[in-house]
Backbone:
């Protein structure tokens, strides 16, 4: 067996090889005579070395924290004597820890290496053969799984011929009996230019103070250049009956580029018309009606015509012409009444 150092005070801390500072001496039982052979004995010696190493390491750090306790009067000791005592205690602990590590390595290297391959688990390999319900619930669980799988096979066998007769269909009716007349989808993008021209000209003729010029610089899609009295001008881009873009500018602002084409993208220099452009884009989305595309264009034109009184009609709520140096730039989508941005309902 391993040669233990006798318990004597080093640095004022008593050493206990059996229990140790770590308190692990009573955790492991002492091997019996039959077990103290071969690998078991080497394992026990290695564990004892680990316990001793833990004890010495704990005592070493406690001594460093508190300092070595000298037997003579501490008031008369010099600094040189205290340093000499500290070095002595440090050397003793380091030598003990080195001896413990060497002893542990020697015991581990002397242990018998396990043979390669799977470990023998004994009778645990027969646990799946236990069918006693009172001892393990595996049998009842297997029975329930078997019944469930039998039902799945039965139901799938019945469902398979039914589904094979109606592949890629949402109903189980025969195609000859389930033929239904479907409503023709309305395509708002493909509209004859003559139909668009007729409707826009009818809208322009209904208002004496609204002038609309229809051009088609982008193919069959119409671009409307609208002049609303002496109040504002607008550019509206249509794709079929669908309003895709609206820009509002002042009367004195240029609507054409230098090359003579219509300017679709430049916003107004004035904040009042920038506000009206934002509101016009919101109204464009509000009046969009895929089922009644022509009505949506007429409703938007009616709403846009209400801006003829942009600088003359006061706000419906506050009764003022100007609020934050701006006229009422919002028109109610139903009543067409003017409101400031801060006053709109």
Residues:
């Amino acid at each position: 067996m391993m040669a233990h150092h006798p318990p004597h005070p080093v640095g004022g801390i008593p050493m206990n090889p059996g229990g140790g500072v770590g308190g692990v001496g009573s955790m492991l039982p002492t091997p019996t005579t039959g077990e103290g052979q071969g690998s078991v004995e080497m394992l026990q010696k290695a564990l004892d070395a680990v316990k001793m190493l833990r004890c010495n390491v704990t005592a070493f750090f406690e001594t460093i924290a508190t300092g070595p306790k000298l037997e003579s009067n501490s008031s008369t000791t010099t600094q040189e004597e205290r340093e000499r005592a500290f070095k002595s205690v440090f050397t003793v602990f380091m030598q003990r820890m080195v001896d413990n590590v060497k002893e542990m390595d020697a015991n581990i290297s002397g242990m018998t290496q396990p043979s390669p391959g799977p470990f023998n688990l004994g009778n645990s390999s027969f646990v799946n053969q236990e069918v006693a319900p009172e001892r393990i619930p595996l049998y009842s669980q297997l029975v329930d799984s078997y019944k469930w799988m039998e039902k799945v096979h039965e139901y799938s066998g019945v469902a398979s011929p039914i589904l094979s007769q109606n592949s890629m269909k949402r109903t189980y009716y025969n195609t000859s009996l389930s033929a239904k007349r479907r409503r023709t989808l309305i395509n708002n993008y493909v509209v004859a230019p003559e139909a668009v021209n007729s409707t826009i000209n009818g809208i322009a003729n209904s208002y004496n103070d609204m002038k609309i010029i229809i051009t088609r610089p982008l193919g069959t899609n119409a671009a409307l250049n609208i002049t609303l009295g002496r109040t504002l001008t607008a550019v509206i881009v249509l794709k079929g009956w669908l309003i895709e873009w609206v820009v509002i500018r002042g009367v004195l602002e240029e609507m054409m580029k230098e090359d003579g084409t219509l300017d679709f993208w430049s916003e107004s220099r004035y904040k009042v018309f920038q506000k009206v452009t934002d509101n016009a884009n919101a109204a464009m989305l509000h009046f969009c009606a895929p089922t009644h595309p022509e009505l949506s264009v007429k409703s938007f034109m009616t709403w846009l015509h209400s801006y003829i009184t942009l600088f003359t009609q006061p706000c419906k709520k506050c009764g003022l012409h100007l609020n934050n140096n701006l006229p009422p730039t919002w028109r109610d989508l139903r009543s067409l009444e003017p409101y400031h941005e801060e006053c709109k309902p």
